[in-house]
Design a protein that fits this description.
Elements (H helix, E strand, L loop, with lengths): L5 H24 L4 E7 L13 E7 L6 H18 L3 E7 H4 L8 H4 L2 H7 L4 E5 L14 H21 L8 H20 L7 H7 L7 H10 L5 H17 L15
Parallel strand pairs: 2-3
Antiparallel strand pairs: 1-2, 1-4
């Protein structure tokens, strides 16, 4: 019998961990408003890093108590992560938000629902109702409007990083992801990119544009150690990248000033 490859063993382990946290989530929440469970993020994709978390996304009832989300994540942190060595996180989105209702919970306080609805069709269905997210009344932002949201988020991050001289809870890798999400939108508008939430796919689409800032952003995301000086320099470069995008005539999100 041929020996199982290291990659196969690793993949089997990753799927086993996904099964474990999925079962734990369903067991604890199925009678408390959980309607469906999905896997987001990069954990089972070619974009995965050794530091990648397991990002679970639940579609939950309008009446869902978001204290349950906090309790589940505490359980993951205290009982599951020490055992499997990988952090897991659950976030919920209410079905009412997808239908145009008021914002609830952490997930859409960080990422607007009209950006989430663009990404959700690419999430892996794990349990419950298999929704067709394209049928909901909430629709994705037009690309230039979405770019404006990323523009403001990046500018705010740069200010915070500089204020703390690079010593901030926002890691260089997480900040690089913010830049890459803006690059997705630029590539849609300017270079005919058909959206898929794959950093490697974006870079492949831009392979003939070797000087595009997305290449540097992906390098930062993949780097395990970044000095403070390198982090601050990357912020300067990101600011320059944003300035160069003025040709897209980016709209400001909700009319808020980015100063």
């Amino acid at each position: 019998m041929s020996q199982v490859s290291t990659n196969s063993k690793r993949d089997d382990l990753h799927h086993a961990i996904i099964d474990r946290v999925s079962e734990e989530t369903v067991s604890k929440l199925h009678d408390r408003g959980l309607l469906a469970l999905y896997l987001g993020g990069t954990f089972l994709t070619s974009d995965r890093l050794s530091s990648s978390d397991i990002d679970l996304l639940g579609i939950v009832a309008k009446t869902f108590d978001f204290c349950e989300e906090d309790h589940l994540n505490s359980y993951f942190d205290e009982s599951v992560e020490p055992e499997v060595g990988i952090k897991s996180c659950f976030r919920g989105i209410t079905i009412s938000e997808l239908k145009g209702g008021i914002q609830k919970g952490n997930a859409t306080s960080w990422i607007p629902i009209r950006i989430m609805i663009k990404r959700l069709p690419f999430y892996m269905h794990l349990w419950g109702i298999k929704f067709n997210f394209t049928t909901f009344p909430i629709k994705p932002y037009p690309p230039k409007e979405e770019a404006g949201i990323h523009f403001i988020g990046i500018k705010r991050s740069i200010k915070s990083i500089r204020r703390k001289n690079g010593k901030l809870r926002l890691s260089p890798q997480a900040f690089a992801k913010q830049v890459l999400h803006l690059a997705f939108v630029e590539a849609e508008v300017a270079y005919g990119f058909k959206f898929t939430p794959s950093y490697e796919g974006l870079i492949d689409h831009l392979k003939d544009r070797k000087d595009h800032f997305a290449h540097r952003a992906l390098e930062i995301r993949k780097s395990e150690a970044i000095s403070t000086e390198e982090y601050l320099a990357f912020c300067d470069q990101a600011e320059g990248y944003i300035s160069n995008l003025k040709k897209l005539k980016i709209r400001k999100y909700d009319g808020r000033n980015d100063e």
